[in-house]
Write a structure and sequence with these properties.
- It contains 11 helices and 10 strands.
- The strands form 2 sheets. Strands 3-4-5-6-7-8-9-10 form an 8-stranded parallel sheet, sandwiched between helices. Strands 1-2 form a two-stranded antiparallel sheet.
- The structure holds (1E,3Z)-4-hydroxybuta-1,3-diene-1,2,4-tricarboxylic acid (0GY).
- (1E,3Z)-4-hydroxybuta-1,3-diene-1,2,4-tricarboxylic acid binds next to loops.
């Protein structure tokens, strides 16, 4: 990690390598963010970290460098419930990006529809105490009910230690659910470790719970590649739930405090967790297209 002249966190690699793996045509980076630019899209007063500017042009340059075709821009906590920076990223992508918003429970139906028109297809509920002050479950359920008619899904970010406590809440969500980074299990325990087992039990409880098989860099922080523990724990998950997994870079890697990952190296994890062309196509094309561009899927 480094900082900009004004002290903001620079959490992305300055010169990512070109991956050896070539994603299939139409591949979607289904978990990434934009930050600002701050002069046009200020950060939330409640932001828990202050990142450098990482706007849409930088994201699209990375997309092209890595060999991807589309992005799903997920509203990052530093922008609070003002989705303008995310909507700007989608608007600038010429149809090649869609997004996931974070909304205030008081949002009107007209505002939800405007988000839909701007390319939003899901809402994110964040339970990480280091990122948000409040995670009101009753209000989240209410939001989930209200977005259901729009055909959206819910994206949830939590850590493994609260999974059991969250189960009744998750059970009450009426829409499809996507879990960020598999609920952050301890991958060193392996596929049959307690935390992966608990997460697999969640996946087995409903066939409309999906997950992002993302962030070896976070789940094995602070080690760098080759992220063998991640690969060993996640490859069987992709093989068991091939129609319910998504992949993304997590660029610009919000608030990474230790080693900043090389996005090319992250892409090279894909063929190690999805070892056949069929699994890779599901992970990178079929599955994200079903959720974010269903009209084309
Ligand atoms: C991620 C992970 C993190 C941050 C955020 O919205 C955010 O600020 O999602 C994190 O700090 O673990 O998926 O981007």
């Amino acid at each position: 990690m480094s900082t900009s002249a004004d002290g903001r966190i620079i959490s992305w690699h300055p010169d990512p390598s070109r991956p050896r793996f070539t994603p299939p045509p139409g591949a979607v980076d289904a978990h990434c963010h934009v930050f600002g630019p701050m002069a046009e899209y200020p950060f939330s007063p409640g932001a828990k970290y202050l990142p450098g500017d990482a706007g849409p042009e930088m994201l699209f340059a990375l997309r092209d460098r890595l060999g991807f075709d589309r992005n799903v821009i997920v509203q990052a906590s530093c922008h609070g419930t003002d989705n303008a920076a995310t909507l700007n990223g989608i608007a600038k992508a010429n149809g090649k990006a869609r997004g996931v918003a974070v909304v205030d429970p008081a949002i009107s139906d007209a505002e939800l529809e405007a988000l839909h028109d701007g390319g939003i297809r899901g809402v994110r509920f964040n339970f990480l105490k280091r990122l948000v002050d409040n995670a009101p479950k009753d209000k989240f359920i209410e939001i989930a009910r209200r977005i259901q008619p729009l055909g959206w899904h819910v994206v949830i970010y939590f850590e493994a230690d609260i999974l059991e406590e969250l189960r009744p809440f998750l059970d009450a969500i009426p829409t499809l659910i996507v879990v960020d980074h598999m609920g952050r299990p301890d991958v060193r325990q392996g596929y049959d470790g307690a935390e992966m087992k608990a997460f697999r039990a969640l996946l087995d409880s409903r066939d409309d719970i999906w997950t992002k098989v993302t962030c070896p860099d976070r789940l094995e922080e602070p080690q760098g590649p080759p992220w063998n523990d991640f690969v060993n724990a996640v490859r069987p998950l992709v093989e068991t739930y091939p129609n319910r997994v998504l992949w993304g870079t997590d660029w610009p890697h919000p608030n990474m405090q230790n080693a900043v990952p090389d996005d090319g190296a992250l892409v090279d994890v894909i063929p190690r967790i999805a070892v056949t062309a069929d699994l890779q196509h599901k992970l990178l094309v079929t599955n994200p297209m079903r959720l974010y561009w269903p009209e084309e899927a």
